[in-house]
Design goal:
Blueprint (H helix, E strand, L loop, with lengths): L3 E4 L4 H12 L4 E5 L5 H4 L4 H4 L2 E5 L5 H10 L4 E4 L5 H6 L1 H22 L3 E5 L15 E2 L10 H20 L2 E6 L2 E3 L10 H10 L4 E6 L1 E6 H13 L5 E5 L4 E3 H11 L5 E7 L5 E2 L2 H6 L8 H15 L2
Parallel strand pairs: 1-2, 1-4, 2-3, 4-5, 5-7, 6-14, 7-11, 8-10, 9-13
Antiparallel strand pairs: 10-12
Length: 311
């Protein structure tokens, strides 16, 4: 019997992870401080959601997290819960408590019940701005030079994962997404391409505030990769960049406009403070399946999904 735990399940990737686990018929516990299901409601109807065990709780509460693992006989973990860059900047203490202490609590709970492997989310925020590197596409072993507290916390998590492997033999796989898009992506700086898709679905214009080139990852694919990472133990504390083809924001805007000609999608001149992309050969070598829906197909599916919500 497998019992999945998804932390941060009310977030975008969390909702998609619940969606795929439900569709695969796998028992899953949703753990989040929030009870707001608006993202999940975009993906699963009320009947489908009844197969999920919803547990509200605080990731920073060590005893509560440990008891959660014990009460539900957790066998697989996809740990996604975190406060994003702006919140960590506004409240560094809370950011550290949720992002770092919360992750320690997950690893410690896994240790106490005898789990040998888990998957958790890191971020490209562990890397520095483009000027810190001599290449546009960073190799898998590029130095981590975070410029935000959020990025520092993620580096700390990757370090603690290594300690739990060395000290306790708990292996882990972390994935580092870049620009995630799709239904439910309504928070964060890089949510603007998704918001443009939502506006177009309603026949409205939208201006994406930044331009440049980057890697785009469909939320559905990211969720599937996390599930695979949770199910595939590896030797060590391993981290992988989710590298896809480097695409300009202008190209994404053009695809949206091609699908919905009546919507004008424009793009700003600003560039995000990240390298253009990250090399992903290590990911491709480590997994038999790497999920990558073609960009046009995923954008079309997202727009269609948004259209269904306004009918």
């Amino acid at each position: 019997m497998t019992n999945f735990l998804v932390t941060g399940a009310m977030g975008c990737i969390g909702a998609w992870t619940l969606y795929h686990l439900v569709k695969q018929g796998k028992p899953v516990v949703s753990f989040d401080l929030s009870t707001d299901r608006h993202r999940l409601d975009l993906l699963l109807n009320t009947h489908e959601q009844k197969s999920i065990t919803f547990a509200q709780g605080d990731l920073t509460n060590t005893e509560q997290v440990t008891q959660l693992f014990k009460d539900h006989d957790i066998t697989h973990v996809v740990h996604l819960a975190a406060l994003q860059v702006p919140m960590c900047k506004v409240n560094p203490v809370l950011g550290a408590q949720v992002n770092v202490t919360g992750t320690v609590n997950v690893f410690e709970a896994a240790r106490q019940i005898g789990m040998r492997h888990l998957a958790y989310a890191s971020s490209i925020a562990v890397y520095g701005p483009p000027e810190d590197y001599v290449v546009d596409i960073l190799p898998h072993d590029a130095p981590m030079l975070p410029r935000t507290l959020y990025g520092v916390y993620k580096v700390a998590n990757e370090g603690l994962a290594d300690v739990y492997w060395r000290d306790h033999g708990i292996s882990s796989t972390t994935l580092r997404p870049y620009t995630v898009y799709g239904l439910g992506r309504d928070q964060g700086l890089t949510s603007e391409p998704t918001k443009a898709m939502q506006a177009a679905a309603r026949g409205n214009d939208y201006h994406i505030g930044f331009g440049g080139k980057m890697q785009f990852q469909y939320a559905s694919d990211v969720a599937l990769q996390f599930i695979t990472a949770a199910e595939q133990p590896m030797d060590g504390a391993l981290g992988f960049n989710l590298g896809t083809e480097v695409i300009s924001v202008e190209t994404v805007a053009q695809i949206i406009s091609d699908i919905v000609p009546e919507a004008s999608i424009t793009v700003g001149d600003d560039r995000l403070p990240f390298p253009e992309g990250f090399e992903s050969s290590e990911l491709n070598d480590a997994f038999n399946t790497v999920y990558e829906t073609p960009l046009h197909d995923a954008i079309a599916a997202t727009i269609e999904g948004f259209r269904a919500t306004v009918q």
